[in-house]
Design a protein that fits this description.
The chain has helices spanning 3-15, 32-40, 56-63, 72-94, 148-168, 173-178, 206-215, 233-237, 254-267, 286-289, 297-308, 322-329, 343-349, 361-369, 402-410, 429-438, 449-458; strands at 20-27, 47-51, 99-108, 118-126, 135-143, 189-197, 221-224, 230-231, 241-246, 278-285, 290-291, 294-295, 314-317, 337-342, 374-379, 381-382, 389-390, 414-416. It has 465 residues and is an alpha/beta fold. The protein has 2 domains: 3-204, Maf protein, CATH 3.90.950.20; 235-462, HUPs (Rossmann fold), CATH 3.40.50. The strands form 4 sheets. Strands 8-7-13-10-9-14-15-18 form an 8-stranded mixed sheet, sandwiched between helices. A hairpin with a 5-residue loop joins strand 7 and strand 8.
């Protein structure tokens, strides 16, 4: 089935359904979503009104003034206004037989004056049955096509997919997400934030949806705040200094906290780092989350609940390689970035087998990673057989890479953490997990008190009390 036929059929199905009626409000990139419904035929059965308010003065007169026209706040104002008018004008006439909806988007697409990354906000407010209180699906999109017409086309297809999913698949948030990129690819358009809210989604956990955006290939990374609210990464990271600790966090241990504390103490002493502008991220990759190729959603939520006790945002990513993670973060900020890791991870960074897909090998990877103000903060490791403490200063790498390693150390791209408690070096999350799942005592003093309490109270990670 061709792209146009599939999207055409979705639009036509909605047009021919007399029980659904709505409005389309689009700012930027043309009336691309509404156009599909007009082109499919029978649009009078679906569209009560289609509107564009490109001029800022006109837009402000309709939706209220704002400092950012491409923002979640503007999207919400558009949905509030258009849905409210629709119900006010038509509820008496057809409210008992019709499910009303309002679709809106506000987009900064590529143009003669705009060549940088292009993005937008898109959402729908809809009823699940006539007379019902409405529910919302809101999302942030990034458009990667280099041509304005291609961006408009991709935006139109995505909008039709969203409207169709909301009206017909709202009982399964997972199905709505899965179908968003029908006839599209992540190389064309990316959905890096989505939020489901309202009576239709009372049982939906938006943290799972953030994971599914990455898991189902709609984006390579998604983020949420400590309170569980999904956040568009640019809103949190824009012009910020960023410190990232990657791990499985199964569970959070004293080492987790110790690594961040010592790394942050050194990071804020860097010349271009303002401590007030530092964002600390706890990152989990899909590899960290999967077991035998599958991701256990409850296990994921358990780990997220434990991370919440630390008070830092959580990043879910598909960036196995650190240079890809660095490139992602530098999309949002040119301020310094710090990556927090242990000796075993640093040692893996110097394994050339991981760079076979790069024509420049390990040098290309490091060139990408360290081209901006990025530093590695390395936690020491005690060898269990010899009890020797290995640090960034005495780590041995392959002989032909020693000069490269020393260059990075001497120029402070790689920094060992100072004044670390040796007692914490013997704590490994895998050992703590094994003990707490066996029901044996003795694990509590290896994790922060609030983490131990939460594990016991809610029996997280398979705890047996």
């Amino acid at each position: 089935m061709s792209e146009s036929t599939d999207t055409h059929q979705k639009a036509l199905q909605i047009n021919l359904d007399p029980g659904k009626y709505g409005v389309f409000a689009e700012i930027g990139a043309g009336q691309e979503v509404a156009r599909w419904f007009f082109r499919a035929g029978g649009a009078s059965g679906t569209i009560a009104k289609s509107i564009s308010a490109y001029d800022m003065t006109v837009s402000d007169a309709i939706y209220g003034s704002t400092d950012r026209y491409v923002s979640q706040k503007r999207l919400a104002a558009m949905l509030d206004h258009e849905y409210g008018l629709l119900v006010e004008r038509l509820a008496e006439k057809r409210g008992s037989t019709t499910r009303f909806f309002a679709f809106a988007d506000t987009v900064a697409a590529r143009s003669y004056s705009r060549r940088e990354e292009t993005h937008g906000w898109m959402g729908i407010r809809f009823q699940t049955h006539p007379g019902a209180e409405p529910s919302d699906i809101l999302m942030h999109v990034i458009m990667w096509d280099r041509d304005n017409l291609q961006q408009q086309e991709a935006l139109g297809i995505l909008g039709v997919n969203l409207v169709h999913g909301a009206l017909y698949d709202f009982e399964s948030a997972e199905s709505v997400i899965k179908d968003l990129l029908d006839n599209l690819t992540i190389e064309r358009i990316e959905v890096d934030m989505i939020e489901f809210r309202g009576p239709a989604f009372v049982g939906v956990d938006n943290r799972i949806l953030a994971l599914q955006l990455v898991e189902k290939g709609l984006t390579n990374a998604a983020m949420f705040r400590p309170d569980g609210r999904i956040v568009q990464p640019g809103d949190l990271l824009y012009k910020k200094c960023v410190l990232v600790e990657r791990g499985s966090f199964r569970p959070v241990t004293n080492v987790t906290v110790d690594m961040i504390r010592h790394a942050q103490a050194q990071f804020i002493q860097e010349p271009n780092v303002n401590s007030a502008d530092v964002v600390v991220l706890m990152e989990m990759t899909l590899k960290n989350l999967s077991s035998e190729g599958k991701i256990n959603h409850q296990d994921f939520l358990d780990r997220v609940d434990l991370l919440r006790t630390l008070g830092h945002p959580v990043l879910i990513s598909n960036y196995g390689e650190f240079h890809r993670l660095a490139s992602y973060l530098f999309r949002f900020t040119k301020c310094p970035i710090g990556l927090v890791m242990g000796i075993p991870t640093l040692k893996e960074l110097f394994e050339e087998k991981y760079y076979a897909d790069l024509s420049g090998g390990i040098l290309e990877s490091f060139g990408r990673m360290f081209k901006n103000e990025l530093k590695l903060y390395v936690y020491p490791y005690r060898d269990p057989r010899s009890s020797a403490v290995i640090t960034a200063g005495n780590l041995r790498v392959a002989p032909h890479l020693r000069h490269l390693y020393m260059y990075l150390v001497e120029n402070h791209f790689i920094q060992g953490m100072r004044d670390v408690s040796e007692a914490s070096m013997d704590v490994f999350s895998r050992d703590v997990l094994k003990v707490l799942q066996s029901g044996e005592p003795g694990w509590e003093d290896k994790v922060p008190p609030q983490v131990a309490q939460l594990i016991k109270e809610r029996k997280l990670l398979g705890f047996k009390g």
